[in-house]
Amino acid sequence: MFKPKSFIPALFALALVAGPAHAAGNLVAVLEAEIVTLDPHFSTAYISRTFGYMVFDTLFAKDSKGEIKPQMVQDWKVSPDGLTYSFTLRDGLKWHDGQPVTAADCVASLRRWGTRSALGRRIFAITASLEPTDAKTFVLTLKEPSGLVIDALGNPVSPVAFMMPERIAKTPGDQRITEIVGSGPFVYSKADHRTGDRMILKKFADYVPRPEPADFLAGGKRVNVDTLEIRVIPDGATAASALQAGEVDFMQYAPFDLLPTLEKNSRVKLLNFTGGNMFAGAYRLNAASKPFDDPAIRRVLWKLVDQREVLDALGLDAKYATPCATFFTCGTTYDSKAGTEAAAKPSIEAARAALKATKYAGEPVIVMEANDLEAPRVSAQVLAERLKQAGFNVDLQVMDWASVLARRAKKEGWSVYGVHAGGFDLGSPLTNVMVAFNCADFTGWQCDARITPLMEAFAKAPAEEDRKKIAGEIQSVMYDQAPAIPWGQFAQPAAYRATLHGLIPSAIPVFWNVEK
Prior knowledge:
By secondary structure, the chain is an alpha+beta fold. Helix content is 29%, strand content 19%. It has a 7-stranded mixed beta sheet. The protein has a 6-stranded mixed beta sheet with strand order 14-18-13-17-15-16. A 4-stranded antiparallel beta sheet has the order 4-5-7-6. Strand 6 and strand 7 form a beta hairpin.
């Protein structure tokens, strides 16, 4: 979110009396939004994922190099035929109610997650059985080999494969859990949760960290504070003022217009992000309606969209933003240059010439501009102007983001809109919404028969190098079909008090390893 939300002074007044940020054992954070959904399987919202990583734990986790490492798992092995996976849990794992974590808990959790996650559904579609064999061991048997099992179990794409006690995990996936019991490094304190004001998470005294150093979402999650106090301050400028005054220790998203001021404050530091921790923006095109039902007309936009122009229009310094031609997030595993020569040298003159060579008959191009979100608003404005200059008949329609979401669900009434998403979510063909919903009933309605078998081959490929090659082939088709046009990759830095040490550079805020 880039445009500050409306601010209710009374809420802020309540927050300020909740507890002193300067207390050594109390870390006060302001996150992107209020945590409303506490069930991390139920929602794909990033804020629910953040809550999940604090309170729950995962069998595997991704490190800063993008590698999947064991987390709750101590040992695991795969049969020579690639069909049977055996997992053994670490010693000392406990739920927040004091009960030991068992293999049966993990099996029930995976089954529930598998009904909610795109990756989980793919794994369970080829699962023959998933059963515990003793208190600490469970076995997954597949119908056919897959190279995605470990990646899916440790992938940070929402909803994440968080573990829950069996009795809670038996809650149907389409119903929210009502009891919040995890085995993660922080305990949710229901008694201290005041909606619209604050949430309190307390250090879990019985948590047993892994022996390795903390590394992004992997490694030893050592908590060095007694409480994590998450305050609700909807207005970005007000939260930044509270940070500078020492009333808040951490702010997930520093407002872009205040970055120069924060950079000059010696008591505040900024945490920039790269790779999958960045956002990736794109223009989503409607392939079900004229004029963009014609791939040749869609391809004109490769010559039209200048990513640097969009990022500059957002007012982003080059250290926070970079052009990125890949569909799969620059700096992540499947980053590829395949097909990108089509977007190498955008110019209005080249776009005009390309448009004249198509069958474009002057149909209106309806550009949806979301006026309540900065990046979608600005990106839409830039595109509308470029489309006019190239010779398109442009109809720029201004509305709020909720209206954009409602309109994009229909096959008529719109042509294109600007959007952005988390880099990790877009980093794989199986989770990238511009690719994963090929030939499906999903906004954009892009369908290319070449992509479906490539997606199946990607899912089955046993080796990472094979998957990288296939991802490149998928991207080449995407450039040929142009169902979406990337407009740049950017980070919105976090800001924190200089008194904090050991903060892990992660766009998913995590508060283990931090000292105050």
